[in-house]
């Protein structure tokens, strides 16, 4: 006999609705995009420059379904057993430190090195598009409390719907910043709404600094000097700076003078960095330290350079006024007055490679520019 409960309903399994056929409820897994990071591989020296060789780039996306996992794209290997994959670092790219009493070597910037093993993005997950942009330094504007703030354009498409590429040869010298946005596009019957995550931006973006290829320069050391200087083109200007840059955020600006915080590069810093990397082997006593990082007056002195005639002046030589500025010659045709120069320009707010002339500098009566040839030790 069936005994009903106090409300008159039969117990489960005896004439109840539980006897109806069971219907399984489909639960769609929610995929959360957590972050995307950009990396590049260069076989010799890695961050912060790519030199003059081909490089590979990769996006790695961290996503969570049940657990968080790093993923790379189909069709592109991510071999961490043989190489390092470099990024800008968790705190953004830092400058090299030059004035060290312990060493004359550049102290490398803080970097990120990915050495994990990302999985391949699952084929049964919604499609993931990754679009890359190339960021160009546009201007360095004032902001509260500091003289300058770095601003960038992001209207140049670099890669579309891509997890990366292999063997790119850069034809444009100098600083390149890369940013990417990863977006999930759900299909029919899947969870609704796009989800998007963007890699580090502005001064935190992945930076690659290719060299110019200066095969018109016969002297090996002067060619190396010009090519290394070319890796800094578009680096923001900052008085007192040296190396491949500093770091920035929405509420952090570049300093100047006493407020210098390690951003950017200045005119003598550019010459010093180029000479250091080209092997000029300077060791100048500054304060309590011996350093390769020198100012314009040292560059105009007999330790770092020798005077040179206008007829002999050429690629890799400098035009310098001890109290004002220094520029380097990139190219000169014979004894022409017309030259191409590279310099860190305070008025332009960045490193420029531009046309000029010898007399533009040497015949200005308000200044005392002289022609010098850098000297190795």
Largest sheet: 6 strands, antiparallel
- Given as residue ranges, the uncertain stretches (5+ residues, pLDDT < 50) are 12-28, 91-95, 98-103, 247-260
Radius of gyration: 29 Å
With strands numbered from the N-terminus, the spatial order across the biggest sheet is 15-20-16-17-18-19
Q: State the domain count.
A: 2
> Strand-and-helix sequence, N→C?
EEEEEEEEEEEEHHEEHEEEEEHE
Number of helices: 4
Mean pLDDT: 77
Give the N-to-C terminal Cα separation.
108 Å
Helix/strand structural class: mainly beta
How much β-strand is present in the residues? 25-35%
Question: What does the model show?
Answer:
The protein is built from four helices and 20 strands. The chain is mainly beta and 377 residues long. The protein folds into two domains: 32-208, no CATH class; 220-374, endopeptidase domain like (from Nostoc punctiforme) (endopeptidase fold (from Nostoc punctiforme)), CATH 3.90.1720.10. The chain has helices spanning 220-230, 267-278, 296-299, 358-362, and strands at residues 32-41, 55-64, 68-72, 85-87, 112-114, 119-120, 127-143, 146-159, 164-168, 176-185, 195-198, 206-208, 284-286, 289-291, 305-307, 318-321, 325-332, 338-345, 350-357, 370-374. It has a six-stranded antiparallel beta sheet. Strands 1, 2, 3, 6 and 9 form a five-stranded mixed beta sheet that branches. Strands 7, 8, 10, 11 and 12 form a five-stranded antiparallel beta sheet that branches. Strand 16 and strand 17 form a beta hairpin. Helix 1 packs across helix 2. The model is unreliable at 12-28, 91-95, 98-103 and 247-260 (pLDDT under 50).
């Amino acid at each position: 006999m069936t005994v009903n409960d106090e409300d008159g309903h039969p117990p489960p399994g005896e004439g109840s609705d539980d006897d109806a056929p069971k219907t399984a409820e489909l639960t769609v897994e929610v995929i959360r995009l957590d972050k995307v990071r950009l990396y590049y591989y260069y076989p010799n020296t890695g961050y912060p420059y790519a030199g003059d060789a081909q490089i590979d780039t990769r996006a790695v996306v961290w996503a969570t379904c049940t657990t968080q996992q790093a993923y790379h794209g189909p069709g592109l290997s991510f071999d961490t057993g043989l190489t390092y994959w470099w990024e800008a670092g968790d705190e953004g790219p830092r400058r090299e430190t030059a004035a060290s009493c312990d060493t004359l070597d550049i102290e490398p910037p803080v970097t990120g090195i990915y050495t994990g093993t990302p999985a391949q993005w699952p084929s049964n997950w919604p499609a993931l598009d990754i679009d890359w942009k190339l960021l160009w330094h546009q201007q360095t504007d004032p902001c509260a409390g500091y003289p300058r703030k770095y601003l960038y354009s992001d209207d140049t498409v670099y890669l579309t719907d891509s997890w990366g590429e292999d063997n790119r040869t850069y034809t444009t010298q100098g600083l390149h910043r890369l940013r990417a946005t990863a977006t999930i596009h759900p299909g029919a019957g899947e969870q609704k709404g796009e989800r998007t995550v963007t890699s580090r931006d502005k001064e935190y973006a992945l930076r690659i600094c290719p060299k110019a290829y200066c095969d018109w320069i016969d002297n090996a050391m002067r060619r190396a000097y010009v090519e290394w200087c070319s890796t800094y083109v578009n680096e923001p200007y900052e008085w007192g700076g040296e190396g491949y840059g500093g770091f920035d955020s929405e509420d952090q600006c570049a300093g100047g003078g006493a407020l210098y915080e390690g951003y950017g590069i200045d005119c003598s810093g550019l010459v010093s960095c180029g000479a250091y990397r080209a092997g000029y082997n300077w060791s100048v006593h500054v304060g309590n330290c011996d350093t390769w990082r020198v100012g314009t007056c040292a560059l105009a002195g007999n330790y770092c350079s020798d005077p040179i005639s206008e007829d002999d002046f050429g690629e890799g030589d400098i035009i310098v006024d001890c109290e004002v500025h220094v520029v380097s010659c990139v190219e000169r045709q014979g004894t022409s007055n017309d030259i191409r120069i590279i310099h860190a320009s305070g008025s332009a707010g960045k490193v420029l490679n531009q046309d000029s002339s010898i007399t533009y500098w040497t015949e200005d009566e308000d200044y005392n520019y002289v022609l010098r040839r850098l000297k190795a030790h």
